[in-house]
Amino acid sequence: MARSAKKSAEPGQSPASPVAPQFERPPQPQRFAADKDQLLQFYREMLLIRRFEERAGQLYGLGLIGGFCHLYIGQEAVAVGLQSAMTVGKDSVITGYRDHGHMLAYGIDPKVIMAELTGRAAGISKGKGGSMHMFSVDHGFYGGHGIVGAQVPLGTGLAMKHKYSNDGGVCLAYMGDGAVNQGQVYEAFNMAKLWDLPVIYAIENNQYAMGTSLQRAAAEPLLYRRGEAHRIPGLQVDGMDVLAVRGAAEVALEWTRSGKGPIIVEFMTYRYRGHSMSDPAKYRTREEVQDMREHRDPITHAERDLEALGVSADELKAIDKEIKDIVVAAAKFAEEAPEPEAGELYTDVLVESY
Asked: Which residues of 144-162 are buried (b: 16+ CB within 10 A; e: fewer)?
């Protein structure tokens, strides 16, 4: 006699509750206990990004930077906190088009970054990549990608290379809250978990993508949960606190280096400027931006921590002057550097032979 089918729920009855996915998760990160020298270094790096981006905005206004230009002002703690824990030359980094801050956080010379922004031959991509397409194989920095979300499968491929080579490296793949809804992101998540690839997916949630509030664009606004269907654990971290970010970096790197596969970390951050220099940002109020500047600014946060460690206001002012001098020198270098020769149009072009 044939076995009868399992009886379905009667009308009005609740169906069987779905089983929640059970898988190992990392511990909740703790704020990194930096000593004075470490925090001073983080402060310098964040300040360099801030002053560099402010200067880039000025050069854009003067017409010395063409095309698109996406500034990182307000988000400095994310890049510095994460990349300060990584090993240049061993680990790899890939990001979207808001990339200047990520390059500076990886120790790349501000002069060659500014020269690239202004389209000069001395730029890190010979002046042919511009703001959105910077690259440094020597540093393990693989762009700078203009297509939203395109860096995520590419970063997954970099992680595959790390695993295949058994070199101990980890790929840090950045994306914004706007990229998280891209289909290619989930294809990459699935493959990364199937193969337990060493990749950290860092979501920089600045809350507006191009100009639409996350609450209006995402059915699930808790982005750190986006890997649940693929059994990828996620964390949510204060992205305006460099020590909280560095603490999360320690946990994420330990997770991936130990062979447990990918991890998602959502950093709650905020950009003070528009999506790009051409964006008037009318989708939010001035009061909202000012409130973030006054109460959540990552550099001001670090200053308070430094003052608690005995660093004086005069010392902080001296650091700011030092950083401003570096940025002025970088801008001067870029403005005086020659443009690429016309023949450069025909170099670095892949020609397929048959």
From this structure: bbbebbbbbbbbbbbbbeb
Q: Kindly tell me if the per-residue pLDDT of 159 is higher than 90.
A: yes
Convert 242-258 to b/e letters by CB count within 10 Å (16 or more is b).
bbbbbbbbebbbebbee
CA neighbor of 202 nearest in space, from 310, 353, 98, 330: 98
Q: Could you tell me what percentage of the chain is helix, strand and coil, using 3-state DSSP and rounding each to the nearest 5?
A: 45, 10, 50
What values do phi and psi take at 300, rounded to 5? -60, -40
- For 315, residues 6+ apart whose C-beta sits below 8 A from its C-beta are none
pLDDT tens by residue, 267-314? 999 999 999 999 999 999 999 999 999 999 999 999 999 999 999 999
CB 271 within 8 A of CB 75: yes
Closest Cα to residue 98, out of 72, 73, 137?
72
CA terminus-to-terminus distance, the chain? 66
CA distance 289 to 286: 5
Q: What is the DSSP string of 25-71?
A: -PPPP------HHHHHHHHHHHHHHHHHHHHHHHHHHTTSS-S----
Q: Which pLDDT band, with edges at 50, 70 and 90, does 41 fall under? A: very high
Question: Residue 344 and residue 20: Cα distance in Å, rounded?
Answer: 56
Mean pLDDT computed over every residue of the chain: 93
56 vs 65: CA distance, rounded Å: 8
Per-residue confidence band for 349, with pLDDT thresholds at 50, 70 and 90: confident
Token digits of residue 335: 């403005």
Q: Are 243 and 39 in contact (CB under 8 A)?
A: yes
Q: How far is CA 256 from the centre of its chain?
A: 18
């964040």: which residue's tokens?
Answer: 46
Give the CA distances from residue 243 to residues 45, 166, 256, 277, in Å, rounded to whole numbers and listed in that order.
13, 30, 20, 29
The secondary element (H helix, E strand) that includes residue 265 is strand 263-268
d(CA 240, CA 170): 24
